[in-house]
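Tutorial handout. Part one gives the primary structure; part two gives the three-dimensional structure as tokens.
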Amino acid sequence: MKIETPTEKQLNHLLDYNIASLYPSREFAVEALKGGKQISIYLGVDPSSSNIHLGNAVVLRKLREFQNLGHKIIFLIGDFTGLIGDPTDKTAVRKQLTPEEVKKNAKTYKEQISLLLDFDGDNPAEIKFNSKWLSKLNFEDLIGLAANFTVQQMLERDMFQERIKNEKPIYLHEFFYPLMQAYDCVEMNVDAEIGGTDQTFNMLVGRTLMKSVLDKEKLVFTCPLLVGSDGHKMSKSLNNTIDVFDTPSDMYGKLMAVKDELIIEYLRMCTDYGAEEIENFREQIEEGENPMEIKKVLAFTVTKFYHGENKAQTAEKEFERVVQKGDTPTEIAEVRIDETEMNIVDLLVRIGLANSKAEAKRLVNQDAVEIDGSRERETAALVKITNGMIVKAGKRKFARVIVDGK
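Part two.
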């Protein structure tokens, strides 16, 4: 399929903006993209969670650029590789998912990524599942694929080196993950693959296999990783994500909690602002502008993109009223329980205001928990549960407790 050659500006934005590295080279990419032919490029995501987050969206935004230029986009759901678990960035073996968990997590992926990619029109994106081919490989096939790599090549991975150093086990099945991801490329016969920098090793294994099996060069684009709320990369497994399906209020509030030093990074990676506009924001902060004002622009812009202007405005007003002025939200989620007395730590976990007892204890110790306006400072405290009482954890989390039968 012939496509229009991108302008120099489009090409530079495509290859430089939010791109960390290119393989085999930028020159090779320029030649492929200026050749007037459609290339196929894919992103693979394992359904280790049911949510697509803003870190995933960095890559999806880049795919949208390729799609707008007429190139073929494939969103590959790793429903088979998800059963194995990617060892990337893991200092210990990843817990393997069941087929039921994988199916459940992948259920709404298309609806979520439709916010960023077009599945209609003259050049629709396509969704594929790698179980279609990986589940059909037999042991002879696997041995043949594995013969293209050495153990030394697999052990080059940073996380494996770290485990060796710390005398932690490396399981044989973990070597198969990059091999299976590499076979995805061969099976789909793609021209390019894109992913976060944490996927560089896996994507380069795919380059090696395509060269060996198909005698074809595969382009690899890596995108920088978005930092999450805890200072680590935004990751479903680390529970520090801002999800594209978060409510407008949650999305806005989470973005307002981003550290000041990350504002420019978030503007660059999560919005469509151009380089000049972002540089202007940077200069405003350096010249003494209150970072909160720029952060409000960030929070409003991102929330508007995913939820529309009206809901973004409502979320902004709610944030100002609840967080900045300390008022109670207009809408509070109700949680039904049948106990009449509970330890405060157990209560916070039970009603969903903390993900673990450790987090609940931390919130109490930080004087961040209130019950009907009274602060709770003791982790051993027993709370008498009354119907309709409001529990607050941190600045933005609220729950109204409903006692069953009341």
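Part three, for discussion. The longest helix spans residues 172-188. Residues 89-93 have pLDDT under 50 and may be disordered.
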